[in-house]
Amino acid sequence: xLLLGKYQLSNEDCDLRLLLGYRLKDAFVIGVGMRYxxxxxxxxxxxxxxxxxxxxxxxxxxxxxxxxxxxxxxEKIKSIMKYNASFD
Length: 88
Prior knowledge:
By secondary structure, the chain is mainly beta. The chain has one helix and five strands, in the order βββββα.
């Protein structure tokens, strides 16, 4: 999933995200998300590009996700992970 944009809210613990992705030979994905401290919530929609679109009448599907990104307590690793997840 590619992070297209991030909007930092006045509270430094929160930001809003716009996401875009492609699963090879499967689907395009577009979504929005929000980070609060070490948690990220996301809602996205898949547009089928595979043979499965024949079975779904061309309709995709919604996905919901929650992830925790706080396992990296080492500051060097945490800064690398944060850099890779942003466009700063």
